Amino acid sequence: MNSTSSISANVNNIPVLNDTNFKKWKEHIIIVLGCMDLDFALREDRPSDLTSASTVEQRSTMEKWERSNRMSLMIMKHSIPEAIRGAILEETQAKAFLDQIANRFAANEKVETNTILSKLVSMRYKEKENIREYIMKMSNLVTRLKALKLELSEDILVHLVLISLPTQFSPFKISYNTQKEKWTLNELITQCVQEEERLKQEKIESAHLASTSQGFEINLAVVPTDTWWIDTGAITHISVTMQGCLRSRMPTDGERYIYVGNGNKATVKAIGLFILQLDSGCTLDLEETFVVPSFRQNLIFVSCLDKFGYCCSFGNGMSLDMFKNFKAEVENQLSKKIKVVRSDREGEYYGRYDGSGEQRPWPFAKYLMECGIVPQYTMPGTPSQNGVAERRNRTFKDMVRSMISHSTLPESLWGEAIKTAVYILNRVPSKAVAKTPYELWTSKKPSIRHLHVWGCPAEARPYKPNEKKLDSRTMSCYFVGYSERSRGFKFYDPSTRSLFETGNAKFIEDVELSGRESLRNVVFKEKYVNIPIITTGHGHIIFDDTIQNVQSITGIQDTPEIPPAQVMEPIQVHQEVTQQPQEPQVQVPLRRSTRERRSTISDDYVVYLQEHEFDMGLEDDPISVSQVKQSSDSEKWIEAMKDEMKSMKDNGVWDLVELPKGVKPIGCKWIFKTKRDSKGNIVRYKARLVAKGFTQKEDIDYKETFSPVSSKDSFRIIMALVAHYDLELHQMDVKIAFLNGNIDETIYMVQPENFESNGSKQLVCRLKRSIYGLKQASREWYRKFDQVITSFGFKKNTVDQCIYLKFSGSKFIILVLYVDDILLASSDVGLLHETKRFLSSEFDMKDLGNASFVLGIQIHRDRSRGILGLSQKAYIDKVLSRFGMSNCAPGDTPVAEGDKFSLHQCPKNELEKKDMERFPYASAIGSLMYAQVCTRPDIAYIVGMLDRYLSNPSMDHWKKAKRVMRYLQRTKDYMLTYRRSSHLEIVGYSDSDFAGCLDSRRSTSGYIFMLAGGAVSWKSVKQTLIASSTMEAEFIACYEASNHGIWLRNFVTQLQIVDGIEKPLRINCDNKATELYSKNNRSSSKSKHIDIKFLVVKEKVQSLQVSIEHISTNFMIADPLTKGLPPKVYHEHVAHMGVVHIDDVLE
Predict the structure, then answer these.
(1) Where is the Integrase catalytic domain (predicted)?
(2) Fold annotation for 869-1145
(3) Which of 517, 499, 492, 511 has the alpha carbon at shortest distance from 918?
(4) pLDDT tens by residue, 100-151
(5) Of 151, 167, 580, 861, which residue is most buried, by most CB within 10 angstroms?
(6) From CA 50, how far away is CA 58, in angstroms rounded?
(7) Is the separation of the CB atoms in 960 and 883 below 8 Å?
């Protein structure tokens, strides 16, 4: 009993084997078996079989080995999950069984090595940790790497430890680097423990320091409660203590003393580096700081900051300097003189009274007297006497509040916001003066085409003189203003909290950010002015706290709001500068509807071209009748509205009747849309009257709403047959498709806007036919079309009910219906025109002739060579333009070999999630999805992979999406090609990876079906369960492929024009075990757990519906649908899919 309990206790201590712990599991197995003296079978091979001549010793050895072997096998299998145990071949010897497991998990050693090495180099010591234990953890990782055959020397480990230490250990690291001797690991541990104790002691001592100074508080890197003052009169930075000094040196003879204002001298103890950690998270490095213990306060010398590009503003004290600059500009640029200056009675303008009651003018007032300029002051407590300035200040405040509250930028950037507000107001006309201030000042009309939304995200390329070839060319930032003296823009980089200027940028201002928090209530302090120290170049924003208690004419302050009636007009005295001749007042029209459309931005502002006007998905189409009337194309829009109303009348869509009591009519709305060709040129102005069907109630206003739509697979199969049989391919458009449907319900609708019946505006429309917007409109149109077309001899394909076929002897015609678009593919021109005449007699049709552009897909044909290609170049250009990638560098592949995705990459907190809101990730994936569904099987895998993280994407996922766009930039001229062939047959390819999903360990299935040399159907999808082996994963992929293959087979069979379709549908896979399992009914312990629904593959193989065949991986063209591949292999597979450059197939 005791022996049994001991074995049970030991066995329970063995961890369960999984994908990541094989080394640990094996160690436990060997230890447990060794402790119980059961490891004999693992150490020794099986003895020779016993015979009658065997000795007692040989019999004892065999008995010991068999017991050890039996017990070892049971103990090992007990700690292995069933999923893994089922994938391992049966073994009767424990040693062979353990070797097989080791071989199975040998591939994981590379992953484990990479994981451990990444953890080792990324480790960082934290203050709360014990440094001895921390270094031992790093040493343990090195030991584990050594076991994985990656040996790191002790010297490398010492350097890795030093690199991982924080800035508090900087003097310690400098001390080590200056010594000639190298430390062993034990010596390093000893020295680090001593340094740790010293730092703890210093921290305790500094905690007792008390500071009574007042000023601008900054958190030190080491001493968190110290205070520093900004000083314009100092000659260098000064610290009163060595606390927080990261490195220091002794002063030279000339630096030993400094002299203060009263002539006394102070001794300099040392000169060193101090790093200030600000509340905003930024750091300020103070080089060459003098340590003077006799000083009472720490000082920051402003002039030293200026040398490094920093700028410090000190409120109204700069008013005189600013006025001098303004006066010089007026005199030089306008050749005029300033005669009057009006201001309030603040001290910097007016002065102060001394004790005798006399006014003592301050420098500003003195300067006005010296220049002969007349000052005019408001009476105390009457700010309305300076109404123009007060109202303008209020306008600035309102604009800044709005700009900041509608952005995600910090309030410390209010200075940039107010500069932008001034810049905009100088380019906007007023009611009083038709001309803008800019035009009055420069006599030139300003351009507003370069204006952008303040705070919008942008992709900018800053100037980097030391930029390397592989460095990132652009950076994600926010637009915060315009360059003052150059042609460019100013941007804020949130990662470094710095500003920089550049002329190369792409503004992402046409995408609404989702999930944004409620608008912030921006409140500015009334007496205290936030003075940010900002950079003039690519520097850091340092301070955004209060420096001094000031009031300013140009600062942002909340003064009492002045009612318009109390705002006094300025006294008209000496108007030489301010008075300008006025032109007659004109109404400024809305920019949206009257702006001139141009293809490029003017040379004044050289940026990446944002082809907003040419984006087929982002046209500035009117959204209301009022905008139509103001549009430059109003005549064309109104004509389109008249055509729509004529169609309503000709089709008898409604009768005007009195509205019955108790009945509420539904509304209607005009929808305006420009239709464009494959090059983006406008070919038609379309106005559509739609009902507001969202107000309809089920079972009262409608009963059923479903209507079928042809699938893209059906469309591609028809295109392949067109190429193979050289069919005629024409396109028609049903003008008012939905108006042809009849409705059984009684529905009342208000009269259309702008077309109300004269004298009968109180009447409503009782609908007799379906109209766009009704929930049942699409269904009623399909029922009507189906009834009409079947009466003409067409038969509906039961697999896809929007595909119709008609035979006339040996001639045939295929009709594809996609809502109101119709494709006709016929073997005979006469039958084609006969069908066209019939459709035109039944419906209002538009004959578009040879099909060239349908559903956003351009059709290219070379009938002499039997080639047809499907291209989405225009759509891809639109997508690239929409997401600012029109000028991006082309990419070689959409996904790199070995790229993996995981939930661990997703944002972990609200701050990271909020930062990702500025990227239109979901919109980008949706746009890529449409290209993948129509003509691009080569991006199916990566788009499907990125689609899994729509709810919580990370920056890594966004970068991968941009990589796909770069690939499309290179391959936008590629098209999906079909060719005439000697033998027409549908062939499928099925593939799967194994446990590719790092989160769920599920595999990804991929299949593709080929016809006429091109892909007609494909899919890449994550499997619904975890496969325990590669064979099971491949078998599940074959199940998905065979299901869809049967659908394709049934669809093509009903077309009755493809030879050889009665043969079993061939599906190729590159796993031999899968092929054998699909054809063999023998049960196996390794496959008995497979879900019964997947076994339908065997039934389909036996019934000769499909045939699973094995091919080499080199010919598996479905490989790009399951994983990333090397560029050369990837390009070969894509070419075999039929996705090739247009120049390679068309002459």
Answers:
(1) 265-445
(2) Nucleotidyltransferase; domain 5 (3.30.420)
(3) 511
(4) 887 777 656 677 788 888 888 888 888 778 888 888 888 888 888 887 778 8
(5) 861
(6) 8
(7) no
